[in-house]
Every structure is written in C-alpha cells, then in structure tokens.
Amino acid sequence: MDSNIANELGSRFHPVVFLRTDTKPENAMQPRAGMKSGCVMPYFAQAAVKGRTAVFDRDTFLCAGASSGLCFGRAYDRWLPGGIDTFAAFFSHGLASAKDPELYEKVISFMPEKRQEMFRTGECMHYSQEIARKFIEEEMPNYDLPEKYAVYKPLAELKDGEVPLSVIFTVNPVEMSALMHLAGALPDGNGMVCTSRASACQAIGSEVVRQGEKDVPSAVLGFTDLAGRLHSRNLISNEYLTYAVPWKMFLAMDASAKENSIFQSHVWKELRKSD
C-alpha cells in the first residue's frame, strides 16, 4: 500500500502494520516453537528498519507479555510457576515483593544467568505487588482473537483485502508532533496520544485494538517500556518512539495528508530544511 503519510513524513523507518490472519506469510521471520524467553520487539524493529516480515503463533510468541500484545490472550497465569503472583512481583520489586519468596527464588534459579538479576530486582514499574496484580487483571487489555497468526510487516507490503489492527510509525519528536497535528485536524479529530504502563508490544498491538473500539480513538505512544527498548536498541536508537493508530484512524489521517495538511505548511517545510 502506498501511503501519503509515509511519503510526506520522510521518516528513516518503514511504517509497520500489525495484523491477524489465518494465512502464514511467505519468507517471514519466526521464533522457534517452544521458546519461552525473548522479546518480539526486535522482530518489529526488523520490520521498521529493514522492511522484513515477522510472524508469530501460539507456540512462538516468546513471552507472556507478548501473548497479550499480539492478542493471543492473557498468559501471565500459566507462563511461570506462581502465575500472576510471580509476574506481579517481577513488575514491582522482584524477590522483595514476592508473596512466596521461596517459589520466586526457585523460578529465578531456572532462568538464564543474564536474566536472573533482572528478575531478582524486578522491573520497578509498580509500587507494590498488589498494584501490579490489579494492573494485570483489571487494566491491561486482554484480547484473544481467533486468527492463527500475528504479523508485523511494512505497510508498503499490505495486500488488498488485508485489514490491519494497528499502523505503527517509529518517529522522533518532530515527526510525532506532525502526526498529532494531522490527527487533530480531522473533522472529529483527536490529536492527543495516550500512554500506559503496558509493554512495548502491547502499545503497538492490544492497546491500539482497545482504542479502535472507541468512537474517537487516540493514538498510542510506545517504546516507553524500557525493557522492550533495551532489546531493540541495536536497531532503533533511544530518541525514537512508536506512534500507533487503529486502521480506520490511519485511513482518515492518510487521506488528509496529501493536500492542505501540516505537511504542506510553511512550518513543516522549514523544519525539514534543518534535518
């Protein structure tokens, strides 16, 4: 698909779509079946930087957070011994937050050495184990969609008849500002963005699906998940964030981008001269 926004924005990164399908893309990257350690964001980064396609199914989504982000349902209750209690401790202060320290320590002992310290100290994203558990059970979007595969691929590779759930731009602050102006200038526009404590893959997947259910959706700002950023830093440097929108919102923005938009303004042209 040719995109007016992509042409006008001139970003160094490919716009990427997240979609669900029952047809497996040919020549796509995919993690090995049964792997239970890793992050899907480097696969997204490959799509954004190198134009590659990545595919995942229920045996290859790598981590519990990605199960939610890719809309395969919530896996926190079955991924590790201790279930949600273990993840709630990890999302807060690790071993110090664990309801069952002996079990939590045992979980750590079976992990690769480079991950053990991260789990022992926790991600410190929540004040307490109780607050983290409430976030998992009540606040985190939870979608279990029926299609077999989840796919990241460049927007330019989108085929006729394919309907993405999310269109993701990897942007610097100036590019993000332009997209916010573009969205805000729509007849029912909302130039605001929302953020959450969700993981990086949820901020380009399930969080955007939730926004797509609203009458006036917002874009979702992502890569605020430091762990996801750490996994992807060799491909996407620290000054970039993701700006993801539901498909219908993208179509409205893209239609408005070619004429009389922020991209044709004097301010945008002057900013681009300094790039």
Quick tags:
single chain, seven-stranded mixed β-sheet, alpha+beta, about 10% strand, 2 domains, about 280 residues, 13 helices
Helices and strands in order, then pairings?
Elements: H1 4-9, E1 16-21, H2 41-50, E2 54-56, H3 64-69, H4 83-91, H5 101-109, H6 113-121, H7 129-139, E3 149-154, E4 166-171, H8 173-184, E5 193-194, H9 200-203, H10 206-212, E6 219-222, H11 226-232, E7 241-245, H12 247-256, H13 266-273
Parallel strand pairs: 5-6
Antiparallel strand pairs: 1-3, 1-4, 2-3, 4-7, 6-7
Helix pairs in contact: 4-7
Organism: Methanorbis rubei
Protein name: DUF169 domain-containing protein
Pfam families: DUF169
Main beta sheet: 7 strands, mixed
Q: Which residue ranges are poorly predicted, with pLDDT under 50 across at least 5 consecutive positions? A: none
Distance between the termini: 26 Å
- What's the overall geometry? globular
Q: Could you walk me through the main structural features you see in this protein, from its secondary elements to its overall organization?
A:
InterPro entries: DUF169 (IPR003748). With 275 residues, this protein is α+β, with helices and mostly antiparallel strands. Helices cover 39% and strands 12% of the residues. It has a seven-stranded mixed β-sheet. The protein is globular, with a radius of gyration of 19 Å. The two termini are 26 Å apart. 42% of the residues are buried.
